[in-house]
Amino acid sequence: MSWQEELAAELKTFLRAEQFILNAPMSEHTTFKIGGAADLLIFPSTTDEVISIFKLTSERGLDCTILGNGSNVLVLDGGIRGVVMKFNGEFSTIKRDGRRLIAGAGAKLKDVSEFAADNGLSGLEFAIGIPGSIGGAIFMNAGAYGGEMKNVVSVVRAVSRDGRMVELRGNELDLGYRRSVFQSNGHAICEVELELDEGDVALIRSAMDDFTQRRQSKQPLEYPSAGSTFKRPKGHFAGTLIDQTGLKGLRVGGAMVSEKHAGFVVNAGGATAADVLKLIEEVKRRVFETYAVKLSPEVRIIGEE
Ligand SMILES: Cc1cc2nc3c(=O)[nH]c(=O)nc-3n(C[C@H](O)[C@H](O)[C@H](O)COP(=O)(O)OP(=O)(O)OC[C@H]3O[C@@H](n4cnc5c(N)ncnc54)[C@H](O)[C@@H]3O)c2cc1C
Prior knowledge:
Bound molecules: flavin-adenine dinucleotide
Order of helices and strands: HEEHEEEEEHEHEEEEHEEHEHEEEHE
CATH architecture of the largest domain: 2-Layer Sandwich
Oligomer: single chain
Number of helices: 8
C-alpha cells in the first residue's frame, strides 16, 4: 500500500469520500488551469478536520500545502508532494451579526461581497471581482480600487501547524501591500470576521457594478490567469512598465503577456508552468534593461518543476 492509500484509509474515518482525491491534477483546481498533480488533495469542512489533517501530516513528516480558490498561484508542472488542503466550497458559511460578517475561510470573496450588499453593509464593494476565497484574500491582503482586506477585517481564527486554535486581530495580522502574518506563520485560516458600515443598498450595488464594468473592460477575463502577475513596484505600475517596454503579446509556448492588460500573463492555450516561468523571467529581464526596475511576482509559485 502506498502512503497515499494508507493515509486515505485513515481519512475515511472522519471525512466523506468526496472530500479527498489521490493524484489530483492541480490544473483543475487553479484559475491558471496549469499545474501537475498533488499527491493527495483534501477539502476540509470544519476546524476539527483541519487540526486532524495537520496532526496526521506532521506525524508522517509530510508537507501540507494550503490553498484557497487557487486564483493567485502557479503550481509547477511536477505537482505538489504531500498533502494539499484546499479551502473551497466546503467551509463556506456566511453569517451576519449586526455590522459584523463571519465567513468560513472557503467562502468566495464574491459571495461575501454580495451577502454584504444584500444586507446593506458597505466596505466590501471593492472585492466583488476578486476571484479568491476569503481565506486567500486575508493571506494576500487582497485589494482593488482603493479598498483592501486590511480595512474591513476585525478577527481571523486560524489553526497553527501544531494544531492550536488561535485568534488574531489588528497589528497581529501584519497586513500590508499583498502581505499578512500568515505568509510567515503557516497557520490555516479557518474563519474571518469583518466589520462593515451600514450603507445604502442602491449605492453599494452601483459601486459594485462600476467596479465590475471597469474590470471587464480592462482585464483579459476571457483567458485563464492568476490575475496581476507582478507586484506594484514602488512609484510605478507593473502593467505600464511592461506595456511601455513593448511586451504585450510576447509569448513563450502557451503563456502570453495579455494584449489587453500587460500586467497579466495569461494561459493562451496549453501553457505549462515552465512556459509561464520563462515568460516571467523574460519580462523581468527586459523591464530591468529598459527601466532599471526590478519586478517581483505577486503570484505564489508552488510545487516541483
Ligand atoms: C482575473 C483575476 C483578477 C484578480 N484581481 C485581483 C485584485 O483585483 N486584487 C487582488 O488583490 N488580487 C486579485 N487577484 C488575485 C487573487 O484572486 C487574490 O490574491 C485572492 O485573494 C487569492 O485567493 P485564493 O483563495 O484564490 O488563494 P490561493 O490562490 O488559493 O492561495 C494564495 C495564497 O494564499 C494561501 N491561502 C489560501 N487560503 C488560505 C487559508 N485558508 N489559510 C492559509 N493560507 C491560505 C495559499 O497558501 C497561497 O499561498 C485576481 C486573480 C484573477 C485570476
